UniProtKB/TrEMBL annotation:
PROSITE patterns: PROKAR_LIPOPROTEIN (PS51257), TAT (PS51318). This is Subtype B tannase. Residues 136-274 form the BD-FAE-like domain. It comes from Rhodoferax mekongensis. InterPro entries: AB_hydrolase_fold, BD-FAE-like_dom, Tannase_B, TAT_signal. Residues 1-26 form the signal peptide.
Length: 509
């Protein structure tokens, strides 16, 4: 029996339609693999609730498996759980949109913001935060025929009953990997194609989505995963969607000052508002002479890093920077802003108010890069990520069970103003950075990527998503990268296009 026929038979058994299909309810090969795993890792296919989810007047009946633990030894039972939603049609031999029980891709959206703990997502409309009133991404995906599996994940502030931190790095990525393995282990009792898992996330969640896609099956995480009681097996995924990924943290301070050096006025937010899910309040200020000095010291570190990556344009041009931070890489970044502006012009928008754009004959010819950066404005103070007093969200991410905050760059350790200068291990910093796994022999990279970063999103330098997208392109992967015009720090704002891309890559691959 071929595996697809045996899977169909299992699903028919689930649906109680086996007799109709003329198949017997015998066990399958993947059942045999599942049988060797602890019972705690087997999904009970009967423990669902029926829901009808709606978006914009359209609705769909689904089975919802809610709050399902995905590790055998959870340290936090509120966060190490997953919500799995399956269109009811897939148990009735019917199709939704382009898909059926065998072909439906599995949409895997995490809800992480600010590297904080995140509960699994639900199909209910958003009621809080900047996205209040928007439909649930999960409900919209179900209507398109995706199976949706939304993992919860531990985050940097989480504590156990004894007050020990339980969600510091690399907890969140371990949780996402464990959830992927759980889905594969239970493939025989779940509709959907577990070889078509498509991750999605925004900001810190975008970084984790990218890291999940880059670091598939890497042995770096294995001992941790085993200790958690994660399912054995693979954790590579099919495709990645990432909105404004706050990634490449150990290079993000230099990338930030490469972009914002010379912009001394800022509108900053408090660390507690880092999370894109929060409504933000900005406080205006001006860099002190000491902060300007730090910016001046960080900026020149960036060209050496960019040049070490050997990035190339699709035409084969080397993307580099000279010592003062100018060169083909800068033009490459600015090219994405120009294309975004051109898209607006082509859609009939009036760009007259953007005096830094040079528009002639319906074409955006060039831009005054410095003026554009001043327009976007500075939000973070240098160093933007590894704060000298170890007070940033990222310092908090790299804490330990007993130390709340740690540095993660030599630059900030050397200039430390906190009580004690403690630095996260290089291996740990590596394990949180998607860039470290792209093209690595020890990891299986996802081959299809969609990355979005708004032109005025100042939470990380525009160079960061450009480096990520270009490194992936240079591996020969299919990368759809764009900078939406005048878009700030947010995600899931173009669901129709996101789902169209997901459907296209799923059908092609
Ligand atoms: C997020 C935003 C940040 O500016 C940051 O440094 C980390 C995370 C976020 O919205 O997830």
């Amino acid at each position: 029996m071929s595996s697809s026929i045996s899977r169909r038979a299992t699903l028919a058994c689930l649906a109680g339609t086996a007799v109709l299909m003329g198949t017997a309810c015998s066990s399958t090969k993947s059942d045999a693999v599942a049988a060797t795993a602890p019972d705690a890792l087997r999904l009970d296919p009967t423990r669902f609730e029926k829901q009808t989810v709606s978006v914009d007047g359209q609705s769909i009946a689904v089975r919802a498996y809610l709050g399902v633990p995905y590790v055998a030894k959870p340290v936090d039972t509120a966060y190490q759980v997953i919500n799995i939603y399956v269109p009811e049609a897939y148990y009735q031999n019917a199709k939704v949109g382009d898909f059926d029980a065998r072909t439906a891709p599995v949409f895997f959206p995490n809800q992480v913001g600010g590297y904080m703990p995140a509960k699994p997502g639900t199909a209910q409309a958003v009621t809080q935060g900047p996205s209040a009133g928007k439909p649930s991404t999960i409900a919209a995906a179900l209507l398109k025929g995706f199976v949706v599996a939304s993992p919860g994940a531990r985050g940097r502030t989480l504590k156990d009953a004894d007050g020990a931190f339980t969600g510091k790095a690399p907890a969140a990525i371990l949780d996402l990997k464990a959830a992927v393995r759980y889905l594969r282990l239970n493939a025989s009792v779940l509709p959907g194609d577990m070889e078509k898992i498509i991750s999605n996330g925004t900001s810190a969640g975008g970084a984790l989505s990218a890291l999940l896609g880059a670091s598939g099956n890497s042995p770096d995480y294995e001992t941790y995963l085993q200790a958690m009681g994660a399912a054995p097996g693979r954790d590579d995924i099919f495709a990645v969607s990432a909105y404004c990924p706050i990634t490449n943290l150990e290079h993000a301070d230099a990338a930030h000052e490469w972009l914002f050096n010379g912009v001394n006025d800022y509108r900053a937010i408090q660390v507690s508002m880092l999370d894109f899910n929060m409504v933000r309040k900005e406080v205006a200020g001006t860099l002190t002479p000491e902060q300007i000095k730090v910016s001046n010291e960080l900026k020149p570190l960036f060209p050496a890093y960019v040049n070490s990556l050997n990035l190339k344009s699709p035409q084969g041009q080397n993307l580099t920077l000279d010592a003062s931070g100018n060169g083909s890489f800068k033009d490459w970044v600015s090219g994405y802003v120009l294309s975004s502006a051109q898209g607006q012009l082509d859609a009939g928008k009036d760009l007259g108010k953007y005096s830094w754009l040079n528009i002639q004959g319906g074409k955006v010819r060039s831009l005054d890069f410095d003026a554009f950066v001043r327009y976007a404005g500075r939000m973070k103070l240098p160093p933007a990520f590894d704060a000298l007093d170890a007070s940033s969200g990222e310092n908090n991410l790299f804490g330990t069970a007993s130390t709340n905050n740690r540095h993660f760059t030599d630059f900030s350790v050397q200039r430390n103003t906190a009580n004690a200068a403690v630095r996260a291990e290089d291996k740990l910093v590596k394990m949180m950075n998607a860039m470290q796994y792209i093209g690595s022999r020890d990891a299986r990279n996802a081959k299809r990527w969609r990355i979005r970063h708004g032109t005025i999103d100042r939470d990380t330098s525009l160079a960061i998503p450009v480096i990520l997208a270009t490194a992936l392109q240079n591996q020969g992967y299919a990368v759809d990268f764009a900078m939406p015009w005048d878009q700030g720090h947010a995600g899931d704002y173009d669901l129709e296009q996101l789902f169209a891309w997901m459907i296209q890559v799923a059908k092609a691959g």
